[in-house]
Amino acid sequence: MDPGALTRTLDGRSLDGRRKSGTVFNAIPGGATQQLTGLRAADVALHPVLRASADEVLRTATIDAATDAFTVPARSVAVSCGSRTAVAGPLPW
What is the pTM (predicted TM-score) of this model? Predict the structure, then answer.
């Protein structure tokens, strides 16, 4: 865990089975790598808006499925959502 980085996990699976998400808020001047408790990288993907961002630095946010580590660039926020299959197309919300 990196000091200066906050994590949040939301579990709304009881709603429709796929609304599980995680957010990493990184306030430090370097990249931060976090583990989100209760959220496996294999179950989520970076939010489609983040993946298509015009901000090249923000698009460098990653989720490592082998280690369940979420890496976020300096002074930014990254959101992961759904299951990998759920975020392949447009999200319902």
Answer: 0.74
